Amino acid sequence: MPQPTHEEFERLVVDELDLLPDDMVDGLDNVIFVVEDRPEDGTMDTLGLYDGVALTERGQYGFGEMPDRIVLYREPLLDLCADLEELRDQVHITLVHEIAHFYGIDDDRLHDLGWG
Questions:
Q1: Neighbours of 23 (CB within 10 A)
Q2: How far apart are CA 98 and CA 116, in angstroms?
Q3: pLDDT higher than 90, residue 112
Q4: What is the pTM of this model?
Q5: What sign results for the dihedral spanned by CA atoms 38, 39, 43, 47?
C-alpha cells in the first residue's frame, strides 16, 4: 500500500469521524483528536490512546479543564494494514474503541462487544 502522508492520514481520520453515529460523538465534550506517528515508547502494538478522565470517573469537571485527547498512532496503523480499505476499517475501529474509553467502557467490555 502506498504510504499516505501525515496530512492524508489526518484527512482519513476526519472522514472516519464524520461517519460515526451522532449519538456517539455528540457527547464528546472538551475532547481533541490527535494523530501522532507512534507512542512515546516506540511500540508498534498500540494503535490508539484515550488520554483523559472517563465520564464515569469525573467528579467536579468544568471550566478551565485541559481537553481530553484521543490519539491515533499513524505508523502502527499503517504497519497493520495491507490496503487503504483495511486502513479505513482499522481507523474506524480504533476511533470507536478510544471514544468508548471516554464513556467509561473498559477493554474487557470492548472485547466482549467485538471492538477490542
A1: 7
A2: 10
A3: no
A4: 0.91
A5: negative
Q: How far apart are CA 55 and CA 61, in angstroms?
A: 9
d(CA 116, CA 93): 8
Compute the mean pLDDT over every residue in the chain, rounded to the nearest whole number. 91
> To which residue does cell 476526519 refer?
14
42's grid cell: 516506540
- Closest among 100, 94, 84, 82 to 36, alpha carbons compared: 94
For CA atoms 102, 45, 91, 37, the dihedral sign is positive
Strands (E), 18-62: 31-36, 48-51
Instruction: Output the nine-digit C-alpha cell for 14.
Output: 476526519
